[in-house]
Amino acid sequence: MKTLVELFHPNLQESTVNRRLAEAANVKENVTVRNLYELYSDFKIDVEEEKRQLLTAERIVLQFPMYWYSSPALVKQWEDAVLEYGWAYGTNGNQLKNKELLIAVTPGAPAENYVHNGPFKYTVHDLLRPFQATSNLIGTRFVKPFVVTGASSIQADTLEQQAAAYAEYLSKEQLELLGDYE
Ligand SMILES: Cc1cc2nc3c(=O)[nH]c(=O)nc-3n(C[C@H](O)[C@H](O)[C@H](O)COP(=O)(O)O)c2cc1C
Predict the structure, then answer these.
(1) Which residue lies with its CA nearest to atom 16 of ligand 1?
(2) Is the pTM of this model over 0.90?
(3) Is the distance from CB of 163 to CB of 21 less than 8 angstroms?
(4) Ligand 1 and 107: CB distance under 6 A
(5) Atom 23 of ligand 1: nearest residue by CA position
(6) pLDDT by position in tens, the chain (length 182)
(7) Atom of ligand 1 at shortest distance to CA of 106?
């Protein structure tokens, strides 16, 4: 399945986890990784080019480190610019319909923080609901996110396992959808 990884990391040189995940993904056949902060360091998105790229893909991956229980700012800028009325949603806005949308996110904090009776109170899936709601609006199929918790303190062997798991996950023909409240 033709897969486009839109990688958003403000400082990829300093990245440990996202850089390694992206490298592992990039060597897979049918996977293309694009470095959005490199392309748009001025935050001026080339909307037509972005649309062209999205149209080539059957599976669209938004990959980023978790920042403030959400994403780095360019992800939001990208959504605001690219997912236009009449193109991604609204009247005749069905260009992304039935494509898959996959969020790959790396929270720095360990998994035990992201439970309902834990210190952060919300699961990672809870925090990704705005993406799921967006997916509902634009008619993409929101597959189960790929989440690497504990990214700030990850051990080298765990990172290698996660990188291999990510590359394999992206290459699967069939991925399960995330339930509305799962
Ligand atoms: C501005 C900023 C905000 C962050 N917010 C969160 C957060 O809300 N939750 C969390 O678990 N980690 C947070 N982190 C930690 C990053 O998610 C973590 O450093 C990153 O995923 C590691 O991936 P990398 O090696 O690719 O940079 C934050 C880091 C920065 C710089």
Answers:
(1) 108
(2) yes
(3) yes
(4) yes
(5) 17
(6) 999 999 999 999 999 999 999 999 999 999 999 999 999 999 999 999 999 999 999 999 999 999 999 999 999 999 999 999 999 999 999 999 999 999 999 999 999 999 999 999 999 999 999 999 999 999 999 999 999 999 999 999 999 999 999 999 999 999 999 999 99
(7) 21
